Structures are given as structure tokens and as C-alpha cells.
């Protein structure tokens, strides 16, 4: 069954699916002629042209002042390109990468202020430190760090992002933007992307200190088996058990397992329950469905509008984006032979 669905992925109309299948499932080298050719196909694909359709004459993505606009802003577009396998170091992306880094390294998101109360976010022009914890939506810097590195832009500014995330890590290993002084637990939503970004940064820099940060962040998820409460073993959030693509800054077990695989923790026995659930969700044809989505395609003026359909949602139909990620996770966990 695996071989037939793999052949389907290798015949996909999307060059990104074909590329990810070859690299993640069949262990083809990124430097092979076929891989390089596929990455160029990705760059010139209809999907990428749609994602980048709002570029202006300077190569920036509109709306320039709304980099974080969900899901059409530059922040989200570069995150998608990074996950698609877009070619690294492409100069055409420099203006868009600059938009993202200029935002998350601007004073309002870098400077810190000590507070003993929860001031409304829109009134602060710095990162509030309350009860010794930075109240920062670290998924933003984490996503920017991963996207920049994956797209081949490693420089002083990516180092700045990594340093900020390391400094803002909470005692339990994660991050949170909860401004209530009493808040002392990290957020899964705010912590997974910093973990992903720092894990890639650690590999590129071979830094022992960054590895330690990554290990502490991974432990936040592992001690809860990626979806369970420590107190009683119950599911933390039923949405965590549904399969999605893309994930943006949201969380589900597939994304959690994907990051565990990237960071080198998929072999931890505490991933087993989530892996079991993922295997149970496999369809009779060998693929996996998108069971829900974090985007909509009906009104471009509303928030959460994505320019791309991403295969839609159908619990009985294989979604290629979900399927290639599920295969990758299970392969890295030693549960799948191809």
C-alpha cells in the first residue's frame, strides 16, 4: 500500500510534493541534479506565483505595513515557501525576508521593560518582563528564524533572533505571551515554532548552548506526550488530534511530531501515543486526510484568508500535504519502510 501512495506523491502536479517525497521519504540528496531541478520548478510553480502575487515593483509584498496579516502577509508567505522546499539563497526573496526581519527586530519587539502588572499589549512599546518572564509571542520570531534559515538567509540578524528566543525562554522550557502576572506555564502554540527555528539554528551553528535550549523546549512537549495533560493524562485540546496543513502558528500532533523529527527527538518513547493516533488516521488508500483547517478561501478581505487552497478538507480523501508529512514522521520514527 505504501508503494502505491508513494508513486501517487511522485506523480503529483505539485513539484513541492514530488520534491519532499524524494528528499524526506526516499533520502535523495538535496544536491542531486533532480532535486535542484525540482526546486526550480517549485520557484516557478503556479502555487508559488499565487503566494507571491502581491509583490510590488521593489519586490516587497503588499500590504507592506501589515507583514503579519493572516495569511497573506510576508511573514506567512515566507513560512510557506520555507516548508515547500523553495530554493535557498534566491535573491528575489531578499526584499520580503527584509520585511519580516525588520519587523521582528524593530525596537518594539526587541527592547524590554520591567512591569509588575498586565498592561494592554497595544500600550506597550517594548517586551514586558513580568514576574521575571518575557511576555512575548515568540512564535513570531521563531517562525521568522526557521523561515530565514530554511530559505538560505543566515546572517547576523538570524543570530539576533536566536539570541532573543534563548533569553526569553521560560523556566519550563517554552514561551508565552500571556500578560497575567500569575501565568507561569508555557504555551504549546507559542513554543513549537521557537523550538523549530532554534533546532535548525543549532544544526547550522553546531552550538552546545543552543542545543541545551532546544532540549529544554522539546521537554515541554515530551513530558505531556505531545497532547496530554500531566495531571490526569487527558487530551489537552481536542483540536490537537485533528490533522491540518498548513499549521501557521497553530498546533496539532502531526506538526508536533514533525518538529520532533526535525529536532532529533522522534525516537523518544513519549512520542509513541501521538504516533499511534497518527497511524490510526491512515486512510484505506494509504494516505492521510486534512481533517480541519486554520484558513478560509471565501472572503479575501477577512482575516485568515489564504490565497492557496492546500487541498481543502475531506476526512475520507488523501491530502498530499498532510500525507507526505505523516510519512516522513513515521519513517523517522522507524515505523515505516518504503
List keywords for this structure.
338 residues, mainly alpha, 3-stranded mixed β-sheet, 3 strands, 3% strand, globular, Squalene cyclase C-terminal domain-containing protein
Largest sheet: 3 strands, mixed
Strand residue percentage: under 5%
Shape: globular
Helix content: 40-55%
Tally the structural domains. 2
Strand arrangement within the widest β-sheet reads 1-2-3
Any overview of this molecule?
It is a single chain. The protein has 338 residues and is mostly helical. The protein folds into 2 domains: 54-222, no CATH class; 225-338, no CATH class. The protein is built from 13 helices and 3 strands; from the N terminus they run ααααααβββααααααα. The protein has a 3-stranded mixed beta sheet, with no helix packed on it.
Could you provide a short overview of the structure?
The chain is mainly α and 338 residues long. It has helices at residues 2-10, 15-25, 33-43, 46-51, 74-84, 94-104, 138-150, 156-168, 188-205, 208-222, 253-263, 272-280, 320-332; strands at 112-115, 127-130, 133-134.
Amino acid at each position: 500500500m505504501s508503494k502505491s501512495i508513494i508513486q501517487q506523491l511522485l506523480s503529483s502536479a505539485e513539484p513541492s510534493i514530488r520534491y519532499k517525497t524524494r528528499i524526506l521519504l526516499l533520502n535523495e540528496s538535496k544536491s542531486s541534479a533532480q532535486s535542484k531541478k525540482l526546486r526550480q520548478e517549485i520557484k516557478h510553480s503556479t502555487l508559488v506565483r499565487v503566494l507571491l502575487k502581491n509583490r510590488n515593483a521593489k519586490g516587497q509584498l503588499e500590504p507592506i505595513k501589515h507583514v503579519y496579516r493572516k495569511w497573506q502577509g510576508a511573514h506567512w508567505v515566507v513560512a510557506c515557501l520555507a516548508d515547500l522546499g523553495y530554493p535557498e539563497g534566491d535573491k528575489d526573496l531578499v526584499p520580503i525576508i527584509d520585511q519580516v526581519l525588520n519587523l521582528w527586530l524593530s525596537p518594539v519587539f526587541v527592547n524590554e521593560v520591567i512591569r509588575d502588572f498586565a498592561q494592554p499589549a497595544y500600550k506597550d512599546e517594548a517586551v514586558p518582563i513580568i514576574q521575571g518572564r518575557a511576555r512575548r509571542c515568540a512564535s513570531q520570531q521563531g517562525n521568522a528564524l526557521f523561515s530565514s534559515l530554511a530559505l538560505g538567509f543566515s546572517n547576523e540578524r538570524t543570530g539576533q533572533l536566536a539570541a532573543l528566543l534563548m533569553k526569553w525562554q521560560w523556566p519550563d522550557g517554552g514561551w508565552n505571551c500571556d500578560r497575567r502576572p500569575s501565568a507561569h506555564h508555557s504555551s504549546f502554540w507559542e513554543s513549537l515554532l521557537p523550538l523549530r527555528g532554534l533546532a535548525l539554528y543549532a544544526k547550522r551553528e553546531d552550538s552546545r548552548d543552543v542545543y541545551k535550549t532546544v532540549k529544554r523546549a522539546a521537554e515541554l512537549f515530551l513530558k505531556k506526550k505531545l497532547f496530554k495533560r500531566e495531571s490526569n493524562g487527558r487530551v489537552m485540546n481536542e483540536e490537537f488530534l485533528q490533522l491540518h496543513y498548513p499549521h501557521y502558528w497553530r498546533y496539532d500532533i502531526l506538526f508536533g511530531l514533525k518538529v520532533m523529527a526535525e529536532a532529533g527527538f522522534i525516537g523518544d518513547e513519549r512520542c509513541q501515543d501521538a504516533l499511534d493516533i497518527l497511524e490510526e488516521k491512515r486512510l484505506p488508500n494509504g494516505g492521510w486526510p486534512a481533517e480541519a483547517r486554520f484558513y478560509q478561501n471565501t472572503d479575501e478581505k477577512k482575516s485568515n484568508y489564504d490565497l492557496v487552497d492546500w487541498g481543502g478538507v475531506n476526512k475520507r480523501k488523501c491530502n498530499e500535504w498532510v500525507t507526505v508529512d505523516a510519512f516522513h514522521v513515521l519513517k523517522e520514527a522507524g515505523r515505516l519502510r518504503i
